[in-house]
Structures are given as structure tokens and as C-alpha cells.
Structures
1.
Amino acid sequence: MRNAPQVHTVSTSAQASHTVGAGVIWALGAVFFWSQSTACLKIILQSTSWITLAFWATTFAAVCYFLLVLVTGRMAQLRAMPAKELLTVAGIGISGCFIYTCFNYAAFACGPAAEVLIVNYLWPVATVGFASLLSRERPGIREICGLLLAVLGVICVVTRGHFQMPGALLADCLALSGALFYGLFSAASKRVSGDRILILFITYASSSILFLFTALFTHSQLRVEHTTTWLLLGYQGLCLGAVPTLFWLKALQAQSTSRAAIIVYLTPALGLVWLKILLPSEQITPAAIGGFLLIAGGFLLQLARRPTASPHAVSSE
């Protein structure tokens, strides 16, 4: 009789360990696909505009999630959503997908890929800061030092180690704005409850509609002529958008958010490798690598202070 509680404890511990291990695998799967996004974006942008890219990428992702809603029997739940809740989810999703994508894709269209990639990964740092502000908690010394370290990393990247006026100022500003906006979205989304599959469908569908109107307003051509570009657009929307997002959600369900968020910082590191393999002409400077390490270090320093404030939102990489 005395051994029964011990056996139960061991079983529970083994189950928890298995769950965490599965969470790490899901997170690594998301990182593997997300890391390819930068190189894929730059290749697509050689033959089409960023608005066309954004429209088709979000449309492919929306169709993917719509099919998932149908297959999993969530259509009745979607129809039963009150109009107020639907608009709230759409508004939050638009802020984190449509606006972020506008900043991010436009930055890649006019700036060095490696530089934009690294500046964009200020968003986990921004998430911790905004989460602190939204919860009305005074930032601690570690949080402030972490933020300053990350800012120093951004300065190192955009000035390419010379600490002078950035050479790609517009792209850097767009990437920084996108990072800050996605950080705010990530922090705010922690307060929203609901079925994540439905939220993702509404997010991508509403963003796709807005990109359609944006294209019509700016007279951008949505027609894609090359078969290779079509394949890359589908790959970007499905394999680099919808699929890793699902992996990320499973990772968050299986382990702590802070543990999963640390794994996220493998994305830009692998992204630089993919970039160098697929686009050898893209320069990766020592200053960019040093700046990335500073940004990652700033995030880890913040996380040591407040692990519950780490990113929990779905990503729109």
C-alpha cells in the first residue's frame, strides 16, 4: 500500500516528461518551417509585388483553415459566434496579421533580408514589455536591462556595426514597426479566449479580404503569370504560414509558453542559414550576428524576470 502513491507519482512524472518532449518537437517543427520564410519571401518578391504576395499567402492560409474548420466539425460553432465576438476576433486578428504583414513584407521588399529578419525578431522582447504594461505592472531592473540590451542589438544591426545613420532606413523602420505591432498583438491576445482554429480562420480570412481591397485601391496586379511563383506562393501560405502556426499551437498546449518562446529564437538563426544557401548574394555581416545575439540575450534576460509574459500568440510568419 505504501508503494502505490510512489508508482502514481512516477507515472505522472513520465507522462509530463513525454508531453514536454512532444511540445519541443512541435516547436522545432514550427521553427523549421518559419526559418525558410525569409528566403522564400525574397525569391517571390523578385517576380511580384509584396501586396500580391501578401494577398495570395493569406488567402491560401485562409482556405487551409476553412477546410480544417469543415473537417473538424467547427462550422456550427463558427455560425453560432455572436456578431460582437466575431468582430472582436477579426479586429485583433487583423492587427496581428494584416498590419504586421504589411510592415514585414514591405520591409523585405525594400531592404536587406538578413537585416530585416533580425530586426523583426525584436517582437518577443516587445511582447514581454507590452504584457507588463497591459497588466499595469512596473517593469523590473532585469526587464529594463533586457529591453536596453535588445535595443542595442537593433542599433548594431541597422547601423551594421558602425553606429551611424542606417543604410536601409525605410526597411529598418518598417521592420521595427512590425515587430512592435506584433509584440502588442501577442500581449493583447493572451487576454482573448476561444477556439484557436476558428480564430486563425477569421484572422487569415479577414486579412485576405483587406489585402484584396488594398490591391484594388493601389491598382496592384493580383495576377501571377509564372508557375514557379504560384508554387512558391502556395508554399509560403500553407507550409510557411498555416502549418507551422498549427505546430506552434500544439507546442504551446504541450509545454510552458516560456520554454516554447525560447525555442522561437532558433528561427532567425536558421533563417540566416537558409538565406545564405538559397540566396548567396545576400550579405550576412558579423554586426548582424552580434546584434541578433544581443536581442536574444535581452529577451532571455526579460524572461528570467517574468516567464509568464512570454509570447503566447499565434504567429503570422
2.
Amino acid sequence: MINVTTAMILAAGKGTRMGPLTRQVPKPMLPVRGKPILEHIVRHLATHGIRKIVINVHYLPDVIVNYFGDGSRWGVTILYSRESQLLETGGGVAYARPFFPDETVFLANGDVLCDVTPQELIGLHALKGARVTLTVLPSQNYREYSLILYDRNYRVVDILPKGTSPPPGVSSGIYTGHALLHPRAIGHLNPVPHSIVSMLFKPLIETNGIYVYPYSGKWIDFGTREKYTQITNK
């Protein structure tokens, strides 16, 4: 059985669609219920068996580093992958690889709140011999999101661009920003700016190496200033 005790949180970006909200803090440090989004994520991971967390930082990195320190306050070890240029999702994971060279890693977006746990993905990941297992929220909302298409065996068959309607009879869903990454999969990424979707997820479709874990729990995407304001004002 796979034992996942390491997570990487993608938190390097500014949040370009957040307007003045991110002039002085990175997007993952915006407050929700009195704590930064990122702290909610760290607490959740610590509660569910993660002992080492790698956070990539680029925009206003010291805001994050000074707040979280070494992570001991939350019972974890936190390490920082400092990017001199923004490497996006794929390049960011590749650049941080020295922190977890031979480990299966739980990947989490730093601007999303989600209750999924690494343990929920492990069984399917191991059963399928997957290189990547994506947490996917079943949905047909193609107008707002790019959709993941998958078959009855949970194998990804396509990733549609935003605005493309899914074909009838095919299961579809929104990638929540959470995944299990096999070390061999991470090895296909390079530490240069690129998307993990285009450089890893899509090529794995051809080799039947990418699967989905359908998830129906809490998922809150703070993608824009309007969404953040709407959610936090409730």
C-alpha cells in the first residue's frame, strides 16, 4: 500500500483576477473565517497524516514564509521552493522535486478549499497503477471550467478546453486542483514555466496512466475577486 506523507501546495502566484485584494498579500493568504486560505489547507493536511509540506512561493514570498515558518506550530515540517520566476503549475512541481525525489506526492492548489484527503485517493491510485490520480468533482459546467472526461473505469479519456460542451453519455467533471503524483510522473516535468495539465496530464491520456477519483464533498474555488467576495460575505 502506498504511504503518502508529503504534500506540495501550489501558492506561488499573485492571483491576477483578484484586483486590489492581492496588492499586499499573495492570494493564498487572503482571509477566510479569520485565517488565511493557506492555513486552512495546512491544517487539513496535517490532520490527515501529511508530515512534510512543500510550498512554492514567488509573489511576496516572505508573507508566507514569515507566517508559517518551519510548520512546527501545526505539527508538520514546511519547506519552501522559492521561484525567481513564476514557473506555473508544471514547472513549479518540477523545480521542487529535490524536496521529494522518490515519493508519491499529494498536490493541492493554494487558493482552493477542499475536504478530500490523500487516503481517499490511494486505493484507486494503487489499484489502477496510476501515474496520476485527479480529484474530480462530477459536473457538466463547461461554461466556467475546463472539464475532465472519464470512462466507467475512471480512466481519463480527454480534457476539454473551457467552453467546450461534453459529449452525451460520457462522465465529466471539474479538476479540483488536488491529485496524487507518482514520482515517475513528476520526472516528466521540467523546471521551466509550463502547465501541468498540458505537459503531464494530457500526455498521460495516451498511455492510460491518468485516472480520476470522483469527489462529492466540499470544494470552494476562490478563482476571482467576485467569487472570493461572494463566499466570504456569506
3.
Amino acid sequence: MEDYPTTVLELETRFSTEEVCRAYLYQLRWPAGFRCPRCGGARAWATVRHLWECAQCGTQTSVTAGTIFQDTHKPLRLWFRAIWYVTSQKNGVSALGLQRVLGLGSYETAWAWLHKLRRAMVRPGRERLGSTVEVDETFVGGPHPGPPGRGAGGKSIVVVAAEEDGAGIGRIRLRRVPDFSGASLGRVIQDFVEPGSVVHTDGLRAYNGVGPWGYIHEVLRAGGQEGTDPMPRVHRIASLLKRWMLGTHQGAIAPSHLDYYLDEFTFRFNRRTSRSRGKLFYRLMQQAVAIDPVPAARLRGGIFATSEDDSEST
């Protein structure tokens, strides 16, 4: 049964103590009951240090061990507020914005929290896109606009895949690729799209293998009625992505972290019709206890880039 607060007042009232927060994480992590991470045992007892000791092998674990909350020195209450704030803001938040709202002592903490949450925005084992899917590439980032077309330099190549939902857009997927080779683009399609689906692309030769990969490949080219876009969905997504990167993050996204911003944009877009902020909070909390922890040093690659995300969210 899905269990989540529906308003920020309910969040603050319900999760007012660390004990209640730990109990909520327990239910999310072990909905069918405790499972020892070492031996799989189902029986355990609580210790005075808020740990669970397996009755079978004696291993002690906490509800936060092995999750993005592992080794945190901040109250879980503050984490819950952060997750509510992140999921309740339609266009996302910057690290500076999160720092100000939560009253965090350092920008680095807010930056690290946001990157950990972005890693939790990809649900393990998520379904691939199906039916009819448009696939194209776009360029993002870079210090200068650069030349048009696939010859643009100093930018990152991002593959955009979007399901057709009548005249609208269904679910989407985004991924950065190193080049326009058939191997790179083919790997993305195979990861993103269910075999047997119809895949619409432009005439780039790298897509020639789409049919043999197990898809119905249809090449769409500009033509017909003047001004008609043959693949309006992926082009719309590309435009929204760039606007979001510029508006929320002022375009200050390091290429080494781009993949995780793409995950955040995908998470938000695919849930854009949800009317319940509480349910988005619940989904992100579920995923936060399902992924492995990421040390802050690994998030930064050993170097903290102060230029990234240093602007207030718009």
C-alpha cells in the first residue's frame, strides 16, 4: 500500500522525529519484512544504536546502510524535507536554492545531496519504450553556440527518444553518447526501446542497423506540407531540455555530470501529469533506498566545481 504525505504541513507534522523517519525507511526498504543484506535472513532484533542484528548470521545493519542516506551526518528529517522540496518544484532546484531553503551550512552539502538524488531518479529495471518511438540527437552545453548541424564542436551529443502518444508525447529517455556511430546509437536504441516497436529516425546512415536489431524502422524526412516537422516530439523535448538547463541551472552543467541532469529531466518530464506531489515524494523515496550509496568524493570526481549550479533556480 502506498503511504505518503499529501501536503508540506502533513510532511512536517508526520516526520517530526528521527524515529518516525527510520520507521518509514524500514517500510520502504523491507516492505515484506526484514532481509539481511549478507545472508538473506528474515529474523532480526533492534539494538540500542538503532541497528538491526540478523538472528541468523549476526550482521548488524541500519535502515540507511546501502542507500543514498548511508553515512549521512544530517538528520533524516532534513533529508525528507529536501526530497519533498525537490519533487514539489516543477522545474527543479539549484544547489544554492536548496541550501537557502534548508538552511544548510555549506553549498557543497546541497550540491552533493542533489547529485545523490539525481542518481535515485532512475528506477532500477524500468520498462523500455514501446509502440512507436521517435529517436534523434541534439547538442547541449559548450561555451559557444558553435556551427549548426552534426559538426558542432565543444558540445555533448544527447540522444532523445520519445514515445508517440497520439499527437502528444508519452514517456521519454535521454542519454549522452560519444559519437554518431552505429554502435553508439544502436546501443541506446536497444537499451531504450522494446524490440518489435516502430522506430522513427532521420536519414543518418548510422541508423541503418535499426531494422536488423529487431525493430520496424521508418525513416522520416522533411517534406510534404511546408513547415511540417517530421519528428516534432523529439525536437520539442530537445528544446525543453535546453531551456530547463539554461533556466534552472544557468547552463552551468559540467559534462562529467550531464548524465545525471538528463536523468532528472527525464524523471520530471515522465511525471509531468501527476497531480500528487506526495506521490512523487514517495517514488523518489522508494528509489533512494534501492540504489547503492555514492561517496561525495566520487560525485565530484575528487574536485569540487564551484561554477556548477551556482545560480538560484528560476
